[in-house]
Amino acid sequence: MTQAGTPAPADLPTDFPCDPGGQVVRAYTSPAAAGPRGVFIETDDAMGPVFAYYNSALKLYPWRVNVSFSFPLHELSCQHVSSPVLSCSLTVDRARRGRTLVGFHLAPLRLNPR
């Protein structure tokens, strides 16, 4: 994954597919160990093809798409089969200057709720 600026969180799955024209422009982590984390990727490609790319790429092993919809938002929920304790979601939206912004968010699931 090409990065511009902030590196991706260390526990971001290394096999996460990145749109060929995409660059990581922001990354975030929660101060809590089990908190959410993720990356924002920008690309010059249009929203429709970018969403189609991720909708297809995240259906290939070791990923599985749980839910996918493109109206009114472009969003999907997915799971990393090798690390099923991660809850993952992806959004595709318009960015500045006609670009497309992809947000990939992940959070560990609590296996033993209190």
Structure, described:
With 114 residues, the chain is mainly beta. The chain is 10% helix and 40% strand. The protein has one helix and six strands. Strands 1-2-6-5-4-3 form a six-stranded antiparallel beta sheet, covered by helices on one side. Strand 5 and strand 6 form a beta hairpin. The protein is globular. The model has no long low-confidence stretch (mean pLDDT 84).
In short:
This protein is mainly beta and 114 residues long.
Strand content: 35-45%
Q: State the distance separating the first and last CA atoms.
A: 37 Å
Largest sheet: 6 strands, antiparallel
What is the mean predicted local confidence, pLDDT? 84
Morphology call:
globular
| Neighbour order of strands in the largest sheet | 1-2-6-5-4-3
**Low-confidence runs of at least 5 consecutive residues:** none
Output the helix-strand order.
EEHEEEE
Helix fraction bin:
under 10%
Structural class: mainly beta
Number of helices: 1
Beta strand count: 6
* Chain oligomer state: single chain
* Radius of gyration, taken over Cα atoms and rounded to an integer in Å: 14 Å
